[in-house]
What does this fold into?
Amino acid sequence: MKKTLLHLGILAACALTLGSCSKDDNPVVPSANKNIKFTFSTPGVKDAEGDVVHFTVVGSNSTLNATLWKVNGQVRSNEQGFLISEAELEAGGTFVVESVTPLFNASMSISAQNFGATSYTLKYKAEVNGTVQNDITENIVSSNAFIKDFSY
It folds into this structure.
């Protein structure tokens, strides 16, 4: 009889331990509510002089949809991340990268180096839900590097 009560006691203790409440019962799933806009340009960059510039953009959303971005109004189909090529940057102009759907998060990586004799300017602005997060203008001079990673 004592063994039966002992087994019932152990069983009850296990049931209470394993069935107790926890804070993880209703996990909060972050919402994909960030509308992202990056604007950047590199006036004066010249690949022939050894200038090196990379802008890399990556994002994620709740639907795992691979089409997340548009560049200068053109949708980049099936791309969660991409790199703006040096040829595109050397052609000049301003690049406007916008999320086509609200995102959980986004990252922008910038790498700029000047191995030539002529300096160039790097301009970068990031907006999340219409609020400016970063607004940077950097003069990239000879033998100088600018490397930054941003997460939003």
Q: What stands out?
A: Residues 69 and 99 are 5 Å apart (CA to CA). The two ends are 64 Å apart (CA to CA). Confidence is low (pLDDT under 50) at residues 1-18. The domain at 34-151 is CATH 2.60.60.60 (Lipoxygenase-1).
